[in-house]
């Protein structure tokens, strides 16, 4: 009995409340992260799904047609208001309508309601009355919808040919370079071909009967797409959703960033992060090597470490002001005086651009890389260094062939943290190079191919501008959610790339460190 009792007393004890608290914190963090991603995905990606269009008849006889957005209860229990996206902003100056639910007499979903996406004035909603593909030739009824679809397909092909001609021929010839098949007087011939394509796109119109009784005349060249959501099958809606997502990823913004895509912002964000990583990694690694391997470990070195850690907590806007004063006005202004005097007072490097933004963010993330790399160097056993030196290696060979390969995972950890912080920064970029709309991306086929002086677009600034500076915040909110989700995914892809590389290096050198 005593033996059994003693055995019961020696049973392993539980982990205690600390382990449960840690596990609960991890679970709560994961739930919060998944909830955030779910909100961004539902609000952002759901914007591209063709929602049904309602025809609403009010008690006073008025009618409106639009997409139901949300309902809001009124104060003091006075009922509920419903928000509809009605479009047709060029008719009454508004594209949204608030309606009291109690004032709605009837709601229907006519299959012939058409939603047009236009280059200007936003969406248009109504019944398709007629289509004039050519002057004097009007098509009505169901044949009008068939003629509209055929003409929009032709216009899409003409737009692609026009854009390809501008990008592949006209821009190279205007820059003094050769374009295949356009030698000699090629620029004039290319411009003539461009005018032909533009003339082929012009002409034709459609008549749209709005729910309020007005008739809207829309030039066909201004129509980007047309759909009848109430007549679409689930497969048709899925295809339209995929097309909308692709256009969001591959096109540029329009309508003051409340419509269109974010491709220039994606390109600018990734390019800036990559350039920043190239700039910050060697300086951060060399500084960490000096502090841990070369410098005398005395009071001065400890003060330098404290200063580096304090720099990691400085607000980012302070780095933006520093970059504006030192990089843009200081170094950039001197470069303009020395090499670009002919273009003054128009600045070349004396204004915000990709180079100064990357340098500013490299300075911002430099303490992170230094701290992470130095901690990795400190974890390497001294026996590895001593063994290399005992075998006849010089101090430089010991550092380059033994210490640095074993510290590579820690270096990549610093780069991962730097990328995660730099990709989401907005405040310093507003001072040193980001733009609301950049007509050209910083990379093209013109020498020197990477134009460091150009301004660029950034996903974080695009979110800020669309949410707070747009003329129609309600219309911009779905795109804000979609852009925020895209920014998270871009950061995730960049981080996963570095994580996989770090795992490869850890696996390669882990066995050596365990010996």
Automatic annotation (TrEMBL):
Listed PROSITE patterns: ABC_TM1
Segments passing through the bilayer: 20-42, 262-291, 311-332, 352-372, 402-423, 479-501
SUPFAM superfamilies referenced in this protein's UniProt entry, alphabetically: MetI-like
GO biological process terms, semicolon-separated: phosphate ion transmembrane transport
Annotated membrane topology: Multi-pass membrane protein
Origin superkingdom: Bacteria
UniProt domain ABC transmembrane type-1: residue ranges: 266-498
Gene3D superfamilies named among the record's database cross-references: MetI-like
Short name of one Pfam family: BPD_transp_1
GO cellular component: plasma membrane
Ion transport recorded as keyword: no
GO molecular function, one term: phosphate transmembrane transporter activity
Subcellular location: Cell inner membrane; Cell membrane
Major subcellular site: membrane
Keywords: Cell membrane, Membrane, Transmembrane, Transmembrane helix, Transport
Family that this chain belongs to: Belongs to the binding-protein-dependent transport system permease family. CysTW subfamily.
Protein name, UniProt field: Phosphate transport system permease protein PstA
Organism: Halomonas aestuarii
């Amino acid at each position: 009995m005593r033996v059994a009792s003693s055995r019961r007393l020696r049973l392993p004890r539980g982990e205690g409340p600390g382990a449960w608290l840690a596990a609960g914190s991890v679970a709560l963090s994961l739930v919060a992260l998944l909830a955030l991603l779910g909100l961004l995905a539902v609000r952002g990606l759901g914007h591209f799904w063709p929602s049904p269009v309602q025809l609403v008849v009010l008690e006073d006889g008025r009618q409106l047609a639009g997409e139901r957005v949300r309902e809001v209860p009124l104060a003091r229990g006075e009922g509920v208001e419903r928000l509809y996206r009605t479009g047709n902003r060029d008719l009454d100056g508004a594209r949204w309508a608030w309606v009291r639910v109690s004032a709605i007499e009837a709601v229907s979903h006519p299959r012939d309601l058409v939603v047009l996406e236009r280059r200007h004035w936003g969406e248009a909603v109504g019944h398709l009355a007629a289509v004039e593909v050519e002057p004097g030739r009007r098509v009505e009824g169901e044949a009008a919808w068939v003629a509209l679809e055929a003409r929009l397909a032709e216009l899409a092909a003409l737009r692609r040919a026009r854009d390809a001609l501008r990008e592949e021929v006209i821009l190279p010839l205007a820059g003094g370079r050769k374009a295949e098949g356009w030698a000699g007087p090629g620029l004039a011939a290319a411009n003539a071909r461009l005018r032909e394509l533009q003339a082929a796109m012009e002409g034709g119109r459609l008549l749209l009967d709005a729910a309020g009784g007005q008739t809207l005349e829309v030039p066909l060249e201004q129509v980007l797409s047309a759909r009848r959501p109430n007549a679409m099958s689930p497969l048709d809606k899925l295809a339209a959703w995929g097309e909308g997502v692709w256009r969001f990823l591959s096109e540029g913004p329009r309508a003051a960033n409340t419509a269109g895509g974010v491709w220039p912002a994606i390109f600018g964000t990734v390019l800036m992060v990559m350039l920043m990583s190239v700039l910050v990694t060697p300086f951060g690694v060399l500084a960490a090597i000096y502090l841990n391997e070369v410098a005398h470990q005395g009071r001065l070195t400890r003060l330098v470490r404290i200063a580096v850690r304090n720099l990691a907590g400085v607000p980012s806007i302070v780095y933006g002001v520093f970059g504006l004063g030192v990089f843009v006005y200081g170094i950039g202004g001197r470069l303009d005086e020395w090499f670009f005097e002919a273009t003054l007072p128009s600045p070349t490097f004396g204004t915000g651009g990709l180079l100064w933004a990357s340098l500013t963010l490299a300075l911002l993330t430099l303490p992170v890389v230094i701290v992470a790399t130095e901690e990795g160097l400190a974890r390497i056993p001294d026996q590895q260094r001593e063994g290399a030196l005992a075998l006849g290696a010089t101090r430089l060979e010991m550092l380059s062939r033994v210490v640095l390969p074993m510290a590579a995972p820690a270096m990549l950890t610093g780069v991962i943290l730097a990328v995660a912080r730099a990709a989401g920064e907005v405040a310093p970029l507003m001072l040193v190079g980001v733009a609301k709309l950049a007509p050209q991306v910083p990379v093209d086929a013109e020498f020197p191919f990477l134009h460091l002086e150009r301004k660029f677009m950034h996903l974080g600034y695009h979110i800020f501008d669309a949410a707070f500076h747009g003329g129609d915040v309600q219309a911009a909110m779905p795109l804000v959610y979609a852009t925020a989700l895209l920014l998270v995914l871009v950061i995730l892809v960049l981080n996963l790339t570095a994580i996989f590389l770090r795992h490869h290096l850890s696996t390669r050198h882990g066995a050596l460190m365990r010996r």
